[in-house]
Structure formats: C-alpha cells, structure tokens
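How it folds
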Amino acid sequence: MQRAAFFSGGDAQMAAGDLGELLVPYMPTIRVPKSGDRVYKTECAFSYDSPKVPGASGGALPKRRNAKLFLDLETNSDPNNDDFEYEDEAKLVIFPDHYEILLPNIEELPALVTIACDALLSAKSPYRKQDPDSWEEELQASKHAKTLVQLDNGVRIPPSGWKCSKCDLRENLWLNLTDGSVLCGKWFFDGSGGNGHAMEHYKETGYPLAVKLGTITPDGADVYSFDEEEPVLDPHIAKHLAHFGIDMLQMQVTENGLRDNDIKPRVSEWEVIQEAGVKLKPMYGPGYTGMKNLGNSCYLNAVMQAIFSIPEFQRAYVGNLPRIFDYSPLDPTQDFNTQMAKLGHGLLSGQYSKPPMKSELIEQVMKEEHKPQHNGISPRMFKAFISKGHPEFSSNRQQDAQEFFLHLINLVERNPVGSENPSDVFRFLVEERTQCCQSRKVRYTERVDYIMQLPVAMEAATNKDELIAYELKRREAEAARRPPPELVRAKIPFSACLQAFSEPNNVEDFWSSALQAKSAGVKTSRFASFPEYLVVQIKKFTFGLDWIPKKLDVSVDMPDFLDISHLRARGLQPGEEELPDIAPPIIIPDDAKDRMTNHFVESLDIDESSVMQLAEMGFPLEACRKAVYYTGNLGAEVAFNWIIAHMEEPDFAEPLVIPAFGEVASSGAAVFGAVGLDNQPPEEMVAIIISMGFQRNLAIQALKATNNNLERALEWIFSHPELEEETEPALDMMDMENNANANILAETGSEGPRIKDGSGRYELFGFISHMGTSTMSGHYVCHLKKEGRWVIYNDLRVCASERPPKDLGYIYFYHRIPS
C-alpha cells in the first residue's frame, strides 16, 4: 500500500532530481485540509513514537541550551521542562521508498503540494476544545509556576478538617499557593459551587495560583490560574505544597525512625488504595507501561490496563497488529481496531517502559546531547476516538469505570476482528425466573450480560457496634467543629453480598398473563452459563435522600478463589407451570389532551425505582428517565437495553420531551418514538417484545411485517409459531462507519449468543478501586497479578504492590480455573 505522508525528521535525504515528476503518481491523492479536518502532527496514528522517543521514526534530539542540565539531572528534574528546546524540521516523505524532501521547498514542489504542506503545518490541534464539556487539549504549565513567590508566614495546612476562612464552607476549597489561604471557589473548571471567596482574594491580592484541596495525589493536583483564567499545570507543585507542610509524595514514616508498631493505622481510602507510606519498587518492561492521566481519565487507564492483561485481547489486537494496520482505512485515527492495536502494543511492547540509567544520562550530558527516558504513553488519540459522540466520556469530567467498561465492550462487539471476538470471554447468559405470586406460575427467560453486579449487604456488617459509636463521635465532632474521629469502615462479608444477589426481588408493575391483570411478582437470577472471565462489580454507588450521588465506604472480604457453581440455572422444574404466552393489552387513552400514551390501562407514569436502579449504574439521570419512559415502565432490565442501544446518540443525556398525541405515527408509537431509518423498527419496541421472551430477530421481523404496530406485531408472532425456533444472521452491523477492517472480519454466526461455558470456579487476578465520594469525582487505580505478584497501575506509576487493598475494590476480575 503506497501513501504520501508528512513526517517530522528522518534519516536519508533524497537525491536531487525532478521532484515534480516524482510526485506525479501521488497528485490525485493530495488534498488541502479544510476547516474541521483532523490533523495530527504530534502523535502517530499507529504508535506512541514521537520526536522525543529515541529510535523513533524521525525527530531531532534536544540540544542542551544552558548549564542547568547537569544540575537538573542530579535533582531528578523533568527533562521535558523549559530548560530544553527541540529544533524542529519538517520533511515531505514519499513511501515506500522513503524519499525525503526538506520543507519549505517552494521553488521545486508543485503549488498544490506546497499549499497542502503549509496547511498541515499550520493546522490546529484536533483535541482543541469545542464546547464547555467536550474533549480539550492537555493542560499547559502556568507562566507563574517557575517564579511563584510564597510568603514565609508560618502557615501549615492540616491533612483534613479544612473550611473556607471567610464563610466556613467545607466543600470546593482552594489553597492559595502564595499565602496559604483556604477559600471556597465558584467559577472553576469543575463546575463546583461556592461563594467565590478564592476569586475575591485574587482580586484583592493578585496571588495567581491555587490548588484544589482533596485532589492532591503523588501524581499531582488540580491547579487553577486566576490570572490565566484556566486550569494549568504546576511543574513545581511538590515544592509549593511542601512550603505549607503538605507532603504530596507521602514519604514512608519508617524512614523517620518510627517502628512499624508506632505507625498509626492508615484508614483513608486514598492512602490505602494507592499504598501511600510504603516504598514501592517501580516496574519496567513489557506489560508494565503506565498511562498518562489526561485530566480525569484515570477510569479509562484502569480499565484498559485490565483489558490488555487478558490473553484473548492481546492476541486479537497485538497479535493481529500487522493485519489490522494493513487493512486500516485512509483515516486510521478513526478506526477502532487500529487504535486498540496501537494501545495494546504501547502497553505490552515494553518500548515505552524502560528503567532510567543514570550513568548513561551523565555520559550523554558530557557529550552535550540528551535522550530523555520515555516512560508511559499518552492515550489522547484513543480517548478522543473512543469517546466521540458520547455525552459523558467526551467530556473532561470523571466517569464510572463500570459504565466505560460496558461502553468498550459495546464497541468491541460492533467492530469484531479475526475469527473470534475477544469480548466473548466476558459474555454469559442469565436465566431469569419470574413468578406470579398469586397463581404461582412461572416464566423463564434468558439474557446476555457481561458483569455480575453484587449489592452491598449493609445489614450484614460484622462491626455494627463500632459503626454506631463512630457515627456518634462524628456527629459530636461536627457539632463542636473539631476534627472528625478516625474512620471506621463497615466490614461486609462477601458471602452476604452473594446471598443478596441470589435472593428473589420484587417485580414492579408485574402483569400476570395467568390473571390477565397486574399482580405481585418476584424474580430470581441464575447463571445459564459461566464466562471464561468473570467481572464482579460491588454496587457501592447510590443516591441519598437529597438525590446527591454518594458512595458506600465499605470493606468487603473478596476471596482469592471463588466458587459460584451453586448459582447454575436449572430451568423449568418438575411441578412448575409456565405462565401463558399472552401479551398485556395496549390501550390508547381517549383524551388527546393527555399528551401521553401507555400500553397499560393506567396513564403513563415514570417508574422512579427503575430510574434509580439505572442511575446507580452511573448513567445520566435524564437518560435513565427517557429509557424507562420509552420502554413503557417494563423494568430496569428492559430500560438498560434501551440505554445500550441509544447511548451513542447526541441527545442521550438531554431532558425527556414527551411527544404530543397528535405526533403518533401508529398505534402505540407515541411511547416508542419515531420509526427508525431504513424501515428499522424502533429499538424501544424491539426491547419490549424481547422482554416478553421472544428472540430479537423475530421481534424485528414481526414489527417490519406490521409497519411497526406493536399490538399487531404480537398477534403476528402468535400466528407464526414456526418462526420462533428459527434464527438468522445479525440484521445489521451497527454503525460500521469509517471501518475498513471489514475485509478481515469473520462472518457473524447464526447459532445464537456466543458463550464460553464451563466451570463456575474462579481465581482473582485483578481489581479496579475507586477513591472519592461518587462517580463524578475521585480517582481510579488498577491492581493486577502478574508473574505471581501484585502490581499497582496508578496512571503513569507502575510499581510492585506491597499491600494490595483487595477489600476496597470496585470492579474485580476473575479467571476461570481449568477443571
């Protein structure tokens, strides 16, 4: 495959000749970038090589600009700071012979090529901020950071108990790095509320930089520049915080002469999960590559580290890398498989995880050259693509790792590569047994899932007396405005969470086909198949009475070895009688002024309990309301299917707008929205039919045959029972835009859901932990078991774990033990 491309740097200079004649075969492929085109100049579409990486394709080495280099190396200074400059040069490179033409070259190059080169070189970053919530460029170092004056006023900041010095507010607090004032914010980039006292202080004093308390970690903190009116980086943040007694690196106390038994127990989840206070040995090499935090992107980093520790994903993307790259489209930055292969290679190759060699650096200094160590990768292109069009992941806000995991699996499903789909290792079938409490009749249905969600059984806490005493002390301290007491965390047995999962749950608004009326119903879930890799989520996130998201700060004794064989589904048992296959009636209200429609006799009310169940999973509240509304209050499971089908839409999180009765296209359609493109039935109607136990392809076929009339579609299904046993290939490939990898895709099977059933015995190999009070804030860290020992992945920092906090995890990864 031949391509004309633009690169920076290179090795061989092209011999003199007729450049115009040489470029003739490529002229039809050259075009000038227009406004809105994505131009990537600092990141390769196929690798994480850059001019700063030794041995990369192109790139001049940095030149030493002053005598501070040796001193900076001795103090572990960042070689990429202002003390170094890169001498850039641009060349036009013609493949496959790698002819290079130094730019600019107006005299010899055709006008079209010159214009295209100039447009590329002057193009703005594709990551530029488009709107307040969209993906934006990396933060830049503040112009004040290097010369910041700090007052020697004796101020020392305590580790907790902060409040605004002007209004006593205890949230959204900012520490001014000049005088140590702690004041509340208002108009800052995270959208938090406050009274604006930090801004008022700046206007009075001119002190420019402030750090947000609660965001300080060993990797940095959120810093805002009032003068520059934007969030910034402070390369000297550790020194600036130390001035006020804050040790962001959490140096281990044992080095100060204290014995181990003199050390106070560390109960803060930030300290425990990140293993602060313990000297951790950095890890280097293949599989030990860190990922840069792009600004609240730790959820992505943690999930991708876990994903690419799984052999099936390694084989699918890194093993198939040559084929994927060969079949990549003209714009590989917009191809899912290309970007997955690039990320997998970056994490697993070891090319971006090399130990520092101080002797070699000193030798380079003496030769007046410097090759910076390039550890870790910056997944900017991957994040920009994978979050494209998603209202939450495309923002710079913190997100739920579980929601991102499902989003990733959805993309893997839609962009298969090779003969097997790697996401199959997570796929399993759930058998749901629904029983009418009055008639005692049952219905068995199956659905596909990827995560086992375990409720937190708070009532089973083994330290209830300690919790009660702690709560009393906490309230007394709050009333007296004293520092809070040492935290007591609820200890929950894993067996209690597993028991809560297996217990029957009430079915809201259950319609019994045996009674032809609403009745009480219960539902139990069991595994119809066990996956190769079991992903377990501890449902720590919930909503308070004030509808504010919060997290249950609990400790769950997660086992290293897990046996859930007793949760195997058994199907219809002797003596059980099945519920009749009769659909609930669909009734259109006579009053057009009602502006609503419902498939039950009652007018439509949004089931708030289902909305809350979905919101606890991390989905936007308005999207949850729409999902429940458009699926006719048939429960959280059906609404969840609607969310998965619509989460890519631009208005996914927009407020619900109920259509007017006059806008109804057909009977019952007001509930389910407009008819899809290309005569595709609305997903809401499909979801309702599937929830009644019918197959997806049969639901689509019935709706198409009846012009998307739900009532007639159900009648059509009952009049064609012979079709219920038939299956057919997938009816559409679901948004394969810009994906030329279709040439190497395996054909979709027609035998039903793909599962890898086997034993129900598992061993723990990884977990993702969350620090913070809700999914909208905090930090994620990943622990993985590699080569017999635990390793902590904390963004760019990859170290051998000494105290893996397995009891504080949020998402756990288990691998099946071979029988």
